[in-house]
Amino acid sequence: MPDNHRLYFLDWLRILAFFLLILYHTGMYYVTWDWHVKSPHASSAIEPLMLLTSPWRMSLLFLVSGVASAFLLRKLATVTFIRERSARLLVPLLFGMLVIVPPQPYFEVAGKLGYAGSYTDFMKLYLHAYGGFCKEGECLTLPTWNHLWYLPYVWTYTLLLAALAAMLGRERIERAGAALARLLGGWKALVLPAALLAVIRIALKPHFEETHALVDDWFNHATYLPLFLAGAALSGQAAFWRELERLRFAALGTALACWVVLVACHRNPEAIQAWLTPARVVWTTCQWCAVAAACGFARRHLSHDGPARQYLAQAVFPVYILHQTLIVCFTQLLRPAALPPLMEGIVLVAMTVAASFGIFEIVRRVPPLRPLFGLKMRAAAMPATAAQPPGQADSRVVS
């Protein structure tokens, strides 16, 4: 029998991973990697810190999203499950593409292409799918979902999970999860997933660019879909999560060692070409071992509920929707002040967090706004934790 008790530590991980995006996307303004807007102080200085989370951040989110989807599928009929997921994912996606995201490409074309039109002029082009914002043979696709690409991916994987449950039966999926948990016992919990991810990266990465466009993003699908389905299958397998807790220090040490190698490779890109396959193995080992370590330490230290989790679980999805646009807009607001990069970065993070939570506080009090940010129309009552049976808390976070 699967363990249907709520995995609070995964709720905490999901909250922390989403909030990590604020730091990561703020960092993207200051590194040399391509992004929507760039700081005049952009350099490689903090790129090693960015590499600390780059391999595993989204992998963790897709794994946890699979777990959350499986728990919900156990409670709902398949049709109801699809309808609920569609409303909670697609409505914010469409709203985000029409209202939240457009300032990002506007400031992007203004900064990179010298576009001098007003925001109103840009929105007319945006809504008419203008394809003339081009540089060096590459054109900006409009409308766009930018950082919201995670939503259509999770929605698509959710439909596939529902289809598998309908075709195979939920009992078969539970049995498959139990078999997978047995297979991933001991050292194999770290080695086998990393090996699978390495095969995928070695076989597909050279041939498929990461587009985040859903329809042609085959490398990312090959990476994230197995993690999502594994999360769904293993959601009720308590032995697997205990195993990750037991292996947490080994996983963390391996991930950090691989990160050191990745930083060395990043500083010597010529060497990567000579050792491309081993470098990809190191990347995927870091990718999975970091996920395993995060799950293991979270299970050890964050397996509890309380008002903080319940509040943050509501806030995290609206904050995710808002954060990148706020970062981009605040970079333009702060640019005339010419602050030192470190001070400016701290101010950017503080402003983004404050504005995100300020908007969330408004949204959660206005019922018509709630569905636009992934919340239910009516806020559910939050009973005291002591009176709450295991597995019955509603996190109200979309994943």
From TrEMBL:
* InterPro entries named among the record's database cross-references: Acyl_transf_3_dom, Glucan_succinyl_AcylTrfase
Q: Name one Pfam family in it.
A: Acyl_transf_3
What positions does the domain Acyltransferase occupy?
Answer: 8-359
A molecular function GO annotation: acyltransferase activity, transferring groups other than amino-acyl groups
Keywords from UniProt, A to Z, are:
Acyltransferase, Membrane, Transferase, Transmembrane, Transmembrane helix
Q: Where are the transmembrane segments?
A: 12-31, 58-77, 89-107, 150-168, 180-204, 224-242, 249-269, 281-299, 311-333, 345-363
- Please indicate which superkingdom the organism of origin belongs to: Bacteria
The protein here is known as Acyltransferase family protein
Q: What is the originating organism of this protein?
A: Pseudoduganella dura
